[in-house]
Design goal:
single chain, 29% helix, 4 helices, eight-stranded antiparallel sheet, three-stranded antiparallel sheet, alpha+beta
Length: 273
């Protein structure tokens, strides 16, 4: 009984009305009065707290404010993080492309092992234009006599076609351009291992094969490559499809280069084209 009576008294006190009077302290004149009760004040307070809770919940769920609160939200979903991550990925792709291009240059300049594995080298020297390096080395004639290892090799022509531009050191054209019908397969001239198979700005879809006797062959402007870096190839095996890719081309053809001991040589002297 006492407990129920106490609860009833508490409820009656909560419902009991009261008036708040505002009085001018100078002349004791009533300025304003407000009638209310404890129950009304409790309900108003609860309503304000509920409204604040709902507004806070909406701000956290619909605005980026939650990303700035410690321990709230996943930083990986933050727009700035996503944008920076995309930039990093693009930079990595660009660096990988540059590294592949440098690996190709190292292979062409004779810095590859005979079994096709390229050496990993780093340098802090002044960067020199790659084309200038190739032109300087390739322009130096390499005197080959009949006792060299090339004399015992049985080359296969990369394709059956006509020569549109011959090898010329004077014009710095260190290969032979051959034209053939569309979709003609390009063949490996010797057994070897592919050390580069990718797209380059000037040569388009380019493929480089390392052979024995420190010999390299280069195939440029292909429409499509059929082999990947690391693949072993046999003489006469199809490695690409003739095309017209890259900047240094004015029509479908194959640009074929033959390199021996780090120097470009005239493929027509050794291969029946």
């Amino acid at each position: 009984m006492d407990t129920q009576k106490a609860k009833l008294d508490w409820w009656n006190k909560l419902k009991k009305p009261f008036r708040v009077v505002f009085i001018d302290e100078h002349n004791i004149q009533e300025l304003h009065s407000v009638r209310s009760s404890g129950l009304n004040i409790l309900l108003i307070t609860m309503g304000i707290c509920f409204a604040v809770f709902v507004i806070t919940l909406l701000l956290l769920s619909l605005t980026p404010i939650k990303y700035y609160l410690p321990g709230v939200g996943n930083v990986k979903n933050h727009p700035e993080y996503v944008e920076l991550n995309h930039r990093v990925v693009d930079m990595e792709k660009a660096l990988n492309g540059q590294q592949k291009y440098l690996d190709q240059l190292q292979a062409i300049l004779g810095n590859s092992k005979a079994d096709g594995e390229t050496k990993a080298t780093t340098s802090t020297a002044t960067v020199i234009e790659p084309k200038a390096i190739i032109s300087e080395l390739a322009a130096e004639p390499l005197h080959i006599n009949s006792t060299t290892a090339l004399s015992g090799l049985s080359f296969r022509a990369p394709l059956k076609g006509n020569i549109s531009q011959a090898f010329s050191r004077e014009k710095e054209h260190f290969g032979i351009d051959m034209i053939a019908a569309s979709k003609t397969p390009v063949q490996a001239v010797l057994d070897g291992r592919v050390i580069f198979a990718d797209w380059t700005l000037d040569g388009g879809n380019t493929l480089v094969i390392q052979h024995t006797s420190n010999l390299l062959t280069v195939y440029k402007h292909n429409e499509r490559l059929l082999k990947y870096a690391g693949d072993k190839v046999k003489t006469g095996e199809a490695i690409a499809i003739i095309g017209n890719t890259g900047l240094q081309t004015d029509g479908p053809h194959l640009h074929f280069e033959l390199w021996y001991e780090g120097r470009a040589i005239n493929a027509a002297d050794w291969i029946d084209l």
